Amino acid sequence: MKNELKFRENGCFKIVQFTDIHWQNGEPVDQQSAALMESVAQAEVPDLIVLTGDILSGGGCDDAAESLRQIIEILERCDFPWAAVFGNHDDEGTANRHELMEVMQESDLSLAEPGPEDIPGVGNYVLTVESSDGTKSAALLYFVDSGSYAPTDIGGYDWIRRAQIEWYLSESRRYTASAGNPLPALAFFHIPIPEYDEVWDFHTCYGAKYEKVCPPLINSGFFAALHEAGDVMGTFVGHEHINDFWGDLHGIRLCYGRTTGFNCYGKEGFPRGARVIQLREGERQFETWLHLENGTIVNEQQEHKPLQRTLTED
């Protein structure tokens, strides 16, 4: 397997999450996004970069495939393995998800996969992180295509479909049986599941919520599957540009990334950045922090008790 992922000798594995880049033709604001991505990657030296959707402002791209290649050039300059999932805007232009995935796979550093053809979405796959001595799989990274817009007339956003959930459970069972216990795992997708609302409203969270959570109107049970399988410790999404909170719900940390792109809406005083995640070999826990555009590292985000709201939230 190309670019095999592996814990370092010190037992750590570091991921940088870039989300909602909203690249569009390489415009001047896109170059700000590029500079941020390169500076964060250079400073953090990750083992893997993950893009969690809305990589492109698809409808605004003259040539979506070419815009994606421009982003891949940035990732090639960063020179770290990378993986990605799609958001709801990526395929709104001149290329569909299959075509964009083919572009992703042109890169020697790309670990993105289209996934099974018999389930909804493009980009449902799992990557293993090998132990530091290379003798076994020590952690899992799930990537799930959370879709775009509701497939029925109820409106709103798409939901993770039952066939995708069955695929996840099947993969989880397979790796659990092989290891003899659930491996520590993380899951990456774009659109938050409804439980992101629940964790903010009823549990202590850390970080900012300056806009409402926009999950699908249907709860298809993905969180229940994660809880029952017992491997996933944390989920990481994008979609909302001025939320960056995380909270623990029944043993799973539901986390937002920090919006990376400058070619989309934001909030004054809420700088762009990235979320960094660090796994430790043999432990069912992870650390996470924010790396902002000005180089600031945010290790401790503001605490919010249940039913509290960030000031000026919609």
Features:
globular; 9-stranded mixed beta sheet; 6 helices; 314 residues; alpha/beta; 15 strands; 6-stranded mixed beta sheet
Gyration radius over CA: 18 Å
**Major beta-sheet overview:** 9 strands, mixed
Percent strand equals: 15-25%
Low-confidence stretches: none
What is the end-to-end distance?
46 Å
Number of strands: 15
Adjacency order of strands in the biggest sheet: 1-5-6-7-9-11-10-8-15
Counting DSSP H or I runs of 4 or more residues, the number of helices is 6
**Average predicted local confidence, pLDDT:** 96
Order of helices and strands: EEHEHEHEEHEHEHEEEEEEE
Overall body shape: globular
Write the layout of secondary structure elements.
Layout: E1 5-6, E2 12-18, H1 28-44, E3 48-52, H2 64-78, E4 82-85, H3 97-104, E5 125-130, E6 137-143, H4 162-179, E7 185-188, H5 195-202, E8 205-206, H6 222-229, E9 232-237, E10 246-249, E11 252-256, E12 273-280, E13 286-292, E14 297-298, E15 303-304
Parallel strand pairs: 1-5, 2-3, 3-4, 6-7, 7-9, 9-11
Antiparallel strand pairs: 2-12, 5-6, 8-10, 8-15, 10-11, 12-13, 13-14
Helix pairs in contact: 1-2, 2-3, 4-6
Q: What would your notes on this structure say?
A:
This protein is α/β, with parallel strands linked by helices and 314 residues long. 24% of the residues lie in helices and 23% in strands. The protein is built from 6 helices and 15 strands. The strands form 2 sheets. A 9-stranded mixed sheet has the order 1-5-6-7-9-11-10-8-15, with helices on one face. A 6-stranded mixed sheet has the order 4-3-2-12-13-14, with helices on one face. Strand 6, helix 4 and strand 7 form a beta-alpha-beta unit. Helix 1 packs parallel to helix 2. The mean pLDDT is 96.
